[in-house]
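Worked Example 4.2. Consider the chain below.
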Amino acid sequence: MKRHFLLVTLAAILLAAPVIAQQTTPGGAWTVTFNFGTNSTVRTFQFNANNDGTGAFRFRTPSAVVRGLFPAVWSRPTALTMSFTAEVQLPLTSTVREVGTLVFKGTRATNGTMSGPVILIIDNTGGLPATTVPYSIRTGTFTAVPLSVTAGR
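Applying the procedure from the previous section yields the following structure tokens:
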């Protein structure tokens, strides 16, 4: 009976190891989709997270305003949570953009994807027309899929 229990326990550990490793491995590439409510534009970018807590957002959009890389930082407070942030420029129209800090706070699911709230802190100090409110905030939700999961589909 003890031997059977030991074999079952060992099998459970070995079968769970890939899931645990996937949930705790830092870094990697993610496809991130987010919006700021049901009537807002859905935006997608690739987040490349380096193992040292740095990374970059690469928006793939026709707008030249946001094309390119935005340096980012990330942290993983627990094995199942991750936050990442960058200073970005998001287009409102073809000539107007929002400049601010984009913050994602996600929880990992067992399939390796992540989801949670997204916050954009908009810097109103350098824009026209002048405003008395230096910052404004927009909130929404996001989903992030590791590129390794996307490739496996």
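The two ends are 41 Å apart (CA to CA). Confidence is low (pLDDT under 50) at residues 1-24. Compare this with Example 4.1 before moving on.
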